[in-house]
Design brief:
The protein is mainly alpha-helical and 402 residues long. The chain contains 15 helices and no strands. The N and C termini lie far apart (54 Å).
Length: 402
């Protein structure tokens, strides 16, 4: 009798275990697609004579789409369910890929990037919360470290994988502005199928709360939330630089026109971030914050040195250091919010954190794009690095006073 009674529970647990990996795959594919165009921007720029500022505008449309989505829809999975929002988000990524294929002119690029950003805004917080809950149902006695590691690896790892795949296909396969999108269309459809068979983890109530846009603080935990937000802001500022203007700099100032090289440098930044997050799972938040602030600051200084010396190896080293620092900081931010937020408002709080993070993706990149219209790219990068190092120092001081 005992075995018979436990069998349904074991079956449900296995479904949650399989669902965990389906959602992780969907999260990885969605995030990889979002950075797929990174090494392709130089091709668009060469084809249509785009300036660096136009490229930053195209990139900013993606980040604006994410921010708008986080404001309007990033938190509604707490009411309507995780699966519905994840599938809808993947559907928007599919629509974006179709626009890239059918409307490859500047207005189409802007529309495709905005739609992709809107989908990613729905996906990030929702998939992070869903993975956390699926893990809890599958392994109720285990800590949340596994779900945090996998969700961050899918998020940051996907962001790094996209440029690597895009750069490889653009360099070695005919149709560099077609084949990458066709490949990811197939992967996105496969991800939708996988998520459709995943268990829901939110009880959808017949009556829902009155809809309100997400506030940056959301359900965050006061001062602790804003410390996490400051860490996420600086982390995503580095990510923004390497997914927007850095590939153009690699192709121009560093004389490395190979598309795979541009994608590989961006991949190294995100790979370093993912490895740093995995390596710090047992460190205290205070230590992780200190390491992250130091590594990102040093990495920014090395990047400036690389630009002054026109050195590709130094540029790669600086990107790896800055990426590792960003990884330390972002893991600390995610862990702080997950640990301090009740399950009923976890999606809302994560959406608020990602909103602050993606503001960090928009503002510095736009500032950099504007700056290079009046000063050299090196001078613009020096100015951005000084601002970010000041923020990192303020983060250190605030964290010590917490």
């Amino acid at each position: 009798m005992k075995a018979t009674m436990s069998s349904p529970a074991a079956s449900v647990s296995r479904r949650h275990g399989r669902g965990f990996w389906f959602v992780a795959f969907a999260f990885l594919v969605g995030m990889a697609y979002s950075t797929l165009p990174t090494p392709l921007y130089a091709i668009y720029a060469e084809r249509d004579s785009f300036s660096t500022f136009v490229i930053t505008i195209v990139f900013a449309m993606y980040a604006v789409g994410v921010a708008v989505s986080l404001l309007l829809a990033g938190h509604v999975s707490d009411w309507v369910g995780r699966k519905r929002i994840i599938i809808a988000a993947l559907g928007l990524e599919i629509a974006s890929a179709l626009i890239f294929l059918l409307w490859p002119d500047l207005p189409g690029l802007l529309a495709a990037r905005f739609i992709s950003g809107f989908g990613i805004g729905m996906l990030t917080a929702t998939a992070t919360a869903h993975l956390h809950e699926l893990h809890g149902r599958h392994r109720p006695e285990a800590s949340s470290a596994r779900s945090e590691t996998v969700s961050i690896a899918a998020n940051i790892g996907g962001l790094g994988l996209g440029p690597l795949i895009g750069g490889f296909l653009a360099q070695y396969v005919a149709g560099p502005l077609v084949v990458p999108y066709v490949v990811f269309l197939a992967l996105l459809v496969l991800a939708v199928v996988g998520v459709a068979g995943t268990p829901e983890t939110v009880e959808v109530l017949p009556s829902r709360p009155r809809y309100r846009p997400q506030r940056p603080g959301g359900a965050g935990s006061g001062r602790g939330f804003w410390l996490a937000g400051m860490a996420a802001f600086t982390a995503f500022s580095v990510f923004g630089v390497f997914t927007s203007v850095a590939p153009g700099f690699v192709a121009g100032a560093l004389h490395q026109p190979n598309r795979l090289a541009a994608g590989a440098i961006t991949f190294v930044v995100f790979a370093a971030a993912a490895l740093a997050q995995t390596a710090t799972r047992n460190l205290r938040a205070q230590v992780r914050l200190s390491l992250g602030s130091l590594a990102e600051a040093v990495g920014l200084l090395v990047l400036v040195w690389a630009m002054l010396a026109n050195s590709a190896p130094l540029f790669l080293l600086g990107g790896a250091l800055a990426g590792a620092g960003a990884g330390f900081l972002f893991k600390g931010a995610i862990g702080t919010v997950l640990a301090s937020t009740p399950a009923r408002s976890r999606g809302t709080a994560l959406a608020g954190l990602f909103l602050v993070a993606y503001i960090g993706l928009i503002v510095p990149v736009l500032g950099l794009g504007l700056a290079v219209t009046v000063v050299s790219s090196t001078a613009a990068m020096i100015g951005l690095s000084i601002i970010l190092i000041v923020i990192l120092a303020a983060l250190q001081v605030s964290a010590r006073r917490k």
